[in-house]
């Protein structure tokens, strides 16, 4: 079980951006878009066989030629004063068919990622995922940011379109980040590495659907662009977003009218503090959010 | 128990340059399970060890099938007379790579195994009256040459379709190749409506191969009788139920059935064969 580096790039205090798939693939789309836009070069990988079940076999003329596993790859980009490291995991390692990594495997793979980060003198790590929220898909997603150290809160507050857990009504700054996008934050903290998880909001009614939500990846990229001080060609996502919007509208049209009527109210409700004064009273807002919550019978969660 | 050792050996077998045959309990039509049980019985194999389940299976309780509680098993049997090792197991649910290496560790360390075979059933949209073909996938050119001497199809092309995963047998072949062990997985297409009961013809096809390959000298007449009996039962059913006869005739003529027809055929055959057992 280990890391294979094909190359040892000479990097100066790089920032690492890491992601694994999760709800709506928001984080992985954002990180992969950034990686390809920056033309980052692959330089290593985590050996997969102890973490993953193979994903594809190739048999030619009766002989097993290849067994392909989900990849976990490292990339780098040298840029004057802003060297970047990327980690992209195609799957979260999972024992027993769970969607998100937990336990020993998750701990092992997170530590391997951090071994590489530390080897190259990484000073900061960003991870990215989804925040399931009572919002409507017609509304621009916000980004929830969670740092692994208190001193980073003031920095995070300056990111555009970003909220902290304490900005969310009824949360009192509490929450949970499921899977490796969250776990990496905690383990980085144990090693004394600063880390921040940025999560794009996805409407609560889309969380269980097997479709990506690139609209939230775009807002994550806007935050990463500001945080890293680099210009990112976010426009590259536009085609993907248009396609996804059409798909969501098509699904939304199939919802029963009474559910759509409830969900449409989310266009006018903000669950985060402070609430903008508007046509919906505080009582109405409370009732709408309670109704939506009952409708989905699931607590708002993040990944 | 030593935490690094995932297996227990009760009695060290006396084998040299042995061949390992692996059957999985829950493959299509339980073919692997049936073949290993058959070989075990015919060759008088002796159980000599097992893999501990704790790392490889969820142990939050037991599954109940046909009113009986089941616990995962992963057992080794040896047949010194024929220099064979048999391994019968449920497919692991976690730590697959470690599990597969553990099988080969035991086989190499205690049985000096030099070649590996796995058995698997494939679902086929064919009639039970069709000939059972044997397909083989090798993990090396050397094994492909060996298999070329036998009556089987070893020229198959295959890529895992999207949304599906390779079989545990393919994974084992790959692990064996990385340890310079030659191996092959053997596959028999099973008529889809016999998956829930049994297909003695498929079992016979695999046993025939091993019988020839290892000069086992097994008397297969009991399998011939089982095939004949099952064919007679289905023939009798076809006579009594014209609709079932029509479905099977269509399959015999390579005419595909609708989903509804297929489901009905599976249900009726399963119920009928169980009822007259």
Looking at this protein, list some descriptive labels.
heterodimer, A: 303 residues, Rossmann fold, two-stranded antiparallel sheet, 8 helices, 33% helix, globular, disordered C terminus, B: alpha/beta
Structural notes for this entry:
The complex is a heterodimer of chains A (303) and B (277). Chain A has 303 residues and is of the alpha/beta class. Chain A has eight helices and eleven strands. In chain A, strand 6 (72-77) and strand 7 form a beta hairpin. In chain A, helix 1 (26-37) packs across helix 5 and helix 2 packs across helix 4. By secondary structure, chain B is of the alpha/beta class. Chain B has two domains: 13-218, PAC-like subunit (Rossmann fold); 224-275, no CATH class. Chain B is built from eight helices and eleven strands. In chain B, strand 6 and strand 7 form a beta hairpin. In chain B, helix 2 packs across helix 4. The radius of gyration of chain B is 20 Å and the shape is globular. Classes of the chains: A alpha/beta (303), B alpha/beta (277). The A-B interface holds A 49-50, 53-64, 67, 95-97 and B 58, 93-98, 135-141, 144, 147, 153-160, 165-167, 170-171, 173-174, 177.
What is the compact description of this entry?
The complex is a heterodimer of chains A (303) and B (277). Chain A has 303 residues and is an alpha/beta fold. Chain A is 33% helix and 21% strand.
- CATH homologous superfamily placement of the largest domain in chain B: PAC-like subunit
Most extensive chain-chain interface = A-B, 18 and 32 residues
Q: Which regions of chain A contain 5 or more consecutive residues with pLDDT less than 50? A: 298-302
Q: Total domains of chain A, how many? A: 1
- One letter per element, helices H and strands E, the order of chain B comes to EEHEEEEEHEEHEHEHHHH
Distance between the termini of chain B: 44 Å
Helix content of chain B: 25-40%
Query: What is the rounded distance between the termini of chain A?
Result: 26 Å
Low-confidence stretches of chain B: none
Say how many strands of chain B there are. 11
Average pLDDT for all residues of chain A: 86
The oligomeric state is heterodimer
Main sheet specs of chain B: 8 strands, mixed
Assign the CATH class of chain A: Alpha Beta
Give me the side-by-side strand order of the main sheet of chain B. Answer: 1-3-6-7-2-8-11-9
């Amino acid at each position: 079980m280990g890391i294979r580096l094909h190359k040892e790039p000479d990097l100066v205090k790089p920032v690492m951006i890491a992601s694994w798939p999760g709800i709506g693939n928001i984080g992985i789309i954002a990180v992969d878009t950034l990686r390809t836009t920056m033309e980052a070069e692959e330089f290593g990988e985590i050996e997969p066989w102890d973490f993953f079940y193979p994903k594809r076999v190739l048999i030619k003329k009766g002989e097993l030629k290849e067994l392909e596993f989900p990849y976990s790859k490292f990339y780098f980009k040298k840029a004057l004063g802003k060297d970047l490291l990327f980690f992209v995991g195609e799957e979260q390692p999972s024992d027993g068919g769970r969607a998100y990594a937990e336990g020993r495997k998750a701990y092992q793979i997170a530590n391997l990622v951090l071994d590489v980060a530390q080897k190259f003198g990484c000073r900061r790590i960003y991870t990215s995922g989804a925040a399931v929220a009572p919002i409507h898909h017609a509304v621009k997603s916000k980004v929830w940011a969670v740092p692994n150290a208190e001193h980073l809160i003031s920095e995070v507050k300056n990111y555009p379109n970003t909220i902290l857990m304490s900005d969310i009504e009824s949360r009192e700054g509490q929450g949970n980040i499921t899977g490796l996008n969250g776990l990496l934050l905690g383990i980085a903290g144990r090693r004394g590495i600063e880390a921040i998880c940025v999560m794009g909001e996805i409407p609560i009614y889309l969380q269980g659907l097997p479709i990506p939500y690139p609209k939230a990846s775009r807002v994550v990229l806007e935050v990463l662009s500001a945080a890293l001080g680099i210009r990112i060609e976010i426009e590259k996502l536009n085609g993907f977003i248009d396609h996804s919007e059409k798909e969501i509208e098509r699904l939304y049209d199939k919802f029963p009218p009474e559910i759509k009527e409830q969900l449409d109210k989310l266009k006018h409700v903000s669950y985060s503090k402070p609430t903008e004064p508007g046509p919906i009273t505080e009582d109405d807002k409370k009732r709408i959010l309670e109704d939506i919550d009952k409708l989905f019978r699931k607590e708002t969660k993040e990944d | 128990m030593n935490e690094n050792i995932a297996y227990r050996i009760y009695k060290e077998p006396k084998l040299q340059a042995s061949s390992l045959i692996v059957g999985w309990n829950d493959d299509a039509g339980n073919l692997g399970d049936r073949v290993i049980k058959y070989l075990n019985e015919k060759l008088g194999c002796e159980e000599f060890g097992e893999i501990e389940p704790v790392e490889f299976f969820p142990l939050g309780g037991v599954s109940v099938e046909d009113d009986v509680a089941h616990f995962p098993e992963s057992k080794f049997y040896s047949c010194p007379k024929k220099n064979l090792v048999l391994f019968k197991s449920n497919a692991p649910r976690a730590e697959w790579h470690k599990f597969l290496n553990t099988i080969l560790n035991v086989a190499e360390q205690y049985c000096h195994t030099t070649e590996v075979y796995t058995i698997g059933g494939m679902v086929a949209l064919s009639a039970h009256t069709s000939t059972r073909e044997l397909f083989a996938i090798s993990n090396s050119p050397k094994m492909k040459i060996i298999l070329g001497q036998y009556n089987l199809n070893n020229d198959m092309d295959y890529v895992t379709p999207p949304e599906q995963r390779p079989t545990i047998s393919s994974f084992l072949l790959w692990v064996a190749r990385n340890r310079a062990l030659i191996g092959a997985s053997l596959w028999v297409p099973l008529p889809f409506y016999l998956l829930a009961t049994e297909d003695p013809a498929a079992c016979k096809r695999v046993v025939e191969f091993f019988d020839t390959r290892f000069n086992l000298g097994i008397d297969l007449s009991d399998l011939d009788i089982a095939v004949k009996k099952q064919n007679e039962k289905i023939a009798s059913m076809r006579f009594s139920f014209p609709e079932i006869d029509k479905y099977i005739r269509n399959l015999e003529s390579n005419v595909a059935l609708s989903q509804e027809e297929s489901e009905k055929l599976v249900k009726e055959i399963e119920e009928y064969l169980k009822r007259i057992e």
